[in-house]
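Quick one, tokens below:
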């Protein structure tokens, strides 16, 4: 299953980015930056399989119950961890990953807004966690999500040099137990859903499962549908 990009998808995702709190204050980017020679950007996977992907960001809030919640829901997730949080308690994330069939990916050192920063600075924010996660988690991250969904062409070039295969944005977001969509009013095959390690973790996962069921989609691992 390959990845392709299409105008409507990018437009829809740009609209979502403009709406979502994770990108508050950031302007939506244009599709032109997708072809600048750096790592490709994805908002959703191009697949006809009835699958949908959960991604969970940051890692500031941690609770052992989160592992149980995901495990019971039988939802694997891509965990885009901010390094400052990941290195706080790597055993928490290792256990969550191992018990739920999830993966650990990159989300910068300290959750800086990368857009507009120089190449060396952006590369440091992407490469350093990639190296430390290789040690801490036994596998080098291949995906990167820029904090706030905010990036420029420099980000894509830096990501490419850090061995990132895809810069991953999202096409739906769950917050406070409610999902908002990039397009239409329901999930579609290949949608990438954003949520956070936060206080409403249980409600957010429940909303993900409810919306996936409603659309007849199966939670799957994003990494297995990108590469
Ligand atoms: Zn974040």
């Amino acid at each position: 299953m390959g990845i392709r990009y299409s105008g409507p998808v990018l437009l829809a995702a740009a609209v979502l980015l403009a709406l979502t709190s994770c990108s508050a204050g950031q302007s939506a980017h244009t599709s032109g930056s997708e072809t600048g020679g750096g790592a490709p950007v994805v908002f959703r996977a191009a697949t006809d399989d009835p699958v949908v992907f959960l991604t969970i960001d940051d890692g500031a809030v941690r609770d052992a119950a989160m592992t149980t919640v995901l495990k019971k829901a039988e939802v694997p997730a891509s965990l885009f961890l901010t390094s400052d949080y990941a290195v706080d308690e790597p055993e928490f994330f290792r256990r969550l990953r191992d018990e739920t069939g999830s993966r650990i990916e990159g989300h910068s050192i300290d959750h800086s807004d990368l857009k507009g920063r120089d190449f060396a600075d952006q590369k440091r924010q992407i490469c350093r966690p990639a190296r430390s996660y290789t040690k801490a988690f036994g596998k080098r991250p291949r995906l990167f999500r820029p904090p706030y969904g905010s990036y420029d062409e420099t980000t894509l070039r830096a990501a490419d040099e850090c061995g990132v295969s895809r810069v991953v944005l999202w096409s739906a977001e769950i917050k406070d137990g409610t999902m908002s969509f990039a397009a239409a009013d329901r999930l579609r095959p290949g949608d990438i859903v954003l949520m956070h390690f936060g206080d409403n973790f249980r409600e957010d996962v429940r909303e993900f499962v409810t919306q996936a069921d409603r659309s007849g989609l199966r939670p799957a691992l994003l990494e297995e549908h990108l590469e």
